[in-house]
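Tutorial handout. Part one gives the primary structure; part two gives the three-dimensional structure as tokens.
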Amino acid sequence: MSKAPWEAGFAALCLGQFLSHQTALTFSVLIPVLTSEWQLSGGQAGIILGAFQVGTLGAYLAVGFLLDRVRSKPIMTVAAALVGVSDLLFAGIAGNFASGFALRLLVGIVFGGLYLPALKHIAETIPLVRRGTATGLYLAVVVAAYALPLFYVGALAPRIGWRQTMAGVGLLELLGAGLLAWKVPSVPLPAGAGRSGISRYLGDVLRNPPARRIILAYTGHNWELFGMWGWLAPFMVESLRTRGSPPTQALAFGGLLAAGAVGLGGSVGALAGGRLSDRLGRAQAAAFMLAISLVCSAGFGWLFRAPLWLLIAVALLYGIVSLGDSPSYAASLMEAVPPRSLGGAFSLQMLTGWAATAAAPVAFGLTLDAMQSAAAAPDARWGAAFGILALGPLLGLLALGRRGGRPAAPAPDARVG
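Part two.
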């Protein structure tokens, strides 16, 4: 990006959000440790993963509508501080399924105050012609924040203990809150903000066909993405154990492989997807990524015993394409909905989109349990579990198939920034 007045604030936004998002997949990489320590079944582990998503969903619904009335900076700053405190609590007192469920639900609730304020800030400060690229760059940073703990939590937990590791995660998030408060500029609310009314959202969002289709495609995208993100590390660890790796080595190396697929793959996918959405059109870029990710979901679990090089290569491709469509949805919604209702539009998007993120990990875990009860081979168990995630990109393709190439021209006030 060329030098522009908004760049410094955007850089601070990305770095602060990177630090504040560290917790997202920490429980995922701890599943092999806590399954033994807490005596968890696959379904219970999936329920704890889903609890985080449910908490985040509830917060998204409230925060999105709040953003149409309150500036984005104080919301994301307070949320980042609360995420850090909540992870410190998890490190200190979580000890079984019930406490793990409750505390991850709490972390998910406060975590929900991070993402939407950042998207609103981008919509208010980034020029329209750069918005897809900027959204992709922000998502790449967030994905890196999701992925990095898969490596360092997996490497540190067996050596210094998972409680000490999670306490370090909480401290990083408190540092992110300080950076957001210090360096991210505060943006005034747009004209017309603060005047509520359900009719406004009915007209701007619910009776807006492009917005409805974007929301539906985003829902399918999230079903696949968070099911894969939540279970990729356990899949890698179990695959390595089957190949003869000692448990500690399998946990560390499996976390590294998952971090590479989610972080490196997702970051590349977000950057490429954002750029493609600016150049090719939002719907075309998203459909291209969805088609490839559908094939990956249908086949990835069957590679459980495949040569390691092939497993790693497909996992990296899976990480790229499963996130590559995400910038298109965010940028499309920014353009299809007027700024006065954008926060509420994000909330409505999250109502269905993040419900899918809560359901997919649970469905995945229950499928594993059911296939194990049926005495299926490991590759069949994982193949069936990843296969149900293919329903997400299929839904997205069906939704986008009814759209034109580029979104309809937004209302004049949608072009501010």
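Part three, for discussion. The longest helix spans residues 209-242. Confidence is low (pLDDT under 50) at residues 404-417.
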